[in-house]
Structure formats: C-alpha cells, structure tokens
C-alpha cells in the first residue's frame, strides 16, 4: 500500500485541478492520497469523483495556516473533519479573506520595484481559490523577474523580505481544538522545516498536544534529519502518529507524489479517529 497524505490542487496553490491531482496520484502508483489544500475543502467533491474513476482512495483533508503568539508560522493538517463545522469554517474563512488583503498589500509593495499588477496575480488564481505567495511567484515568473517559484521564495518572497506581509491565522492550539471538535485528526505538518522560517519550541508542542494533537508529519523533505530525532522521541513519549508525505504542488514545487509514504497502520488509526467524514474508496 502506497499512501501519501499531503497534496495541493489549484483550490489553493497547487497547479493541477483536484481531479488532475487524483490522475497524477494514480499515475504515480499511489493507492491512497489525501487532498490537503490550504484553508479550503472546496476540492473534495471533484477529487472524490476522480479518485473513484482512477481506482484510488481519497482521504479528505486540509492544511490550516496558524501562527503562535511569538509570530512563528505553523501548518496544521486536518484529516476527515466535518467541512461544515461552524467554528472551524469561521476560522478558515477569516484566514482566506485575510490572505486576499495581504496578497494585495504585497503586490502594492512589489509594484514599486517590479513590473507587477494585481491583475497579473489574479490571472494565476483559480476562481474561489485560497490566494498565497505562490500565486504572486507565478506572476513574477510570467514577468520574467524570476525563473520559478523556488527562486521567488529564495529571494523576493521570503518571510524576511521587505515585501512580506503577514495575514490573520489562528493560534495552533486553538486550531487543534477546532479540528477535534469537527471530528478531524490534527497532524502537525513539516514541524521542523527551518528553511521556511523560525520553528516552534517545546512549549508550543506541549500546548498543541494538550489541545488534542494526534500526529506529526516527520517524513517530509523540509524536515532536516537533525530535527527528526526530536520529533520521533516526542511521538513515542506522547503516543502520536507519525506520517510521511510529499506535499505535492504539481509543477509549482519539485516535490513528487509518493516521495514519502505513510504506514497502512497509521492510516487505519486516522480512519478510526476521524469521525467528521469518511475516506472515499473506489
Ligand atoms: P503563504 O501561505 O501565502 O504564506 O505561502 C506559503 C506557501 O508557499 C507554502 O504553503 C508552500 O506551499 C509555498 N512555498 C513555500 N516555499 C516554497 C518554495 N521554495 N517553492 C515553491 N513554493 C513554496
Ligand atoms: Fe502550499
Ligand atoms: Fe505546509
Ligand atoms: Zn502543504
């Protein structure tokens, strides 16, 4: 069984439609894939229909952008939550709306130095999609400013850049509570991805675990090997699930579907613990 629990479509910052991601997952030889768009579940229905056609299983999921009081960015994966849960829906709607205003602000700043307009960015955003820096990167690529998204993130769009603007994001422990309230399984995404920015310390892990965190995404290319031992010890001590995933974004990132996998027993646990919706099987 080949199980990859982290992939994005153009419902957020992936480059393929939800159906396209299912087709790519089948082509990559996966048996199970999770669709985990940023702050949105809008791709679930299309992905479910395509997964059935492709003969693979779909784990409906989402990746929630969070920020600690110390200003550290945390990504929280949620699997099998009820997408209509009012409390969770309210938080992700707030984030999604704030992302739009924030992207507009970043483009205003960028347009002072680069040939870039809001229209250029919107051109790369599917209708209703969660807007993010990758869409701004796409517009910078089209303008010939950078070669690809990776170059944009290594320079103009980093969190240290003078063009960077923050957006509203819930506290990670609150997000964990909301996911649990919605019947979902919360898993801390790429927890030690230090190249993306500062990473959290013991206190945040404690708060998230106390709030009901159920897993850690340890097998992910952005987790440096040095940080993984800490995570393995934390998982063992607190009975947390360990997942492995690609964080596929289509052509938007080098990450390939199936480059990291999750054990079948872990998926079984996720299915038992997740009560907000079900795994879609062919
Ligand atoms: P945002 O959520 O708007 O702050 O943008 C962060 C998103 O950009 C992350 O969720 C990643 O999917 C994407 N991202 C981060 N680093 C890179 C990179 N080096 N290349 C392409 N995409 C990236
Ligand atoms: Fe992303
Ligand atoms: Fe992430
Ligand atoms: Zn992701």
Report a brief summary of the structure.
This protein is α/β, with parallel strands linked by helices.
Structure description:
The protein is of the alpha/beta class and 282 residues long. The protein has 2 domains: 3-93 and 167-273, TIM Barrel; 103-154, DNA polymerase, domain 1 (Orthogonal Bundle), CATH 1.10.150. It is 39% helix and 13% strand. The protein is built from 10 helices and 7 strands. It has helices at residues 18-27, 44-54, 86-110, 118-122, 133-142, 149-154, 172-181, 202-211, 225-238, 264-273; strands at residues 3-4, 32-35, 57-67, 73-79, 185-188, 215-219, 241-244. Helix 1 (18-27) links the parallel strand 1 and strand 2. The two termini are 15 Å apart.
Strand tally, please? 7
Bound molecules: adenosine monophosphate, fe (iii) ion, zinc ion
Percent helix among the residues?
25-40%
Total of helices: 10
Name given to the CATH architecture of the largest domain: Alpha-Beta Barrel
Under CATH at level 1, the class of the largest domain stands as Alpha Beta
**H and E order:** EHEHEEHHHHHEHEHEH
Largest sheet: 7 strands, mixed
Tell me the distance between the termini.
15 Å
Which short descriptors sum up this protein?
binds zinc ion, alpha/beta, binds fe (iii) ion, globular, 282 residues, 7-stranded mixed beta sheet, TIM Barrel
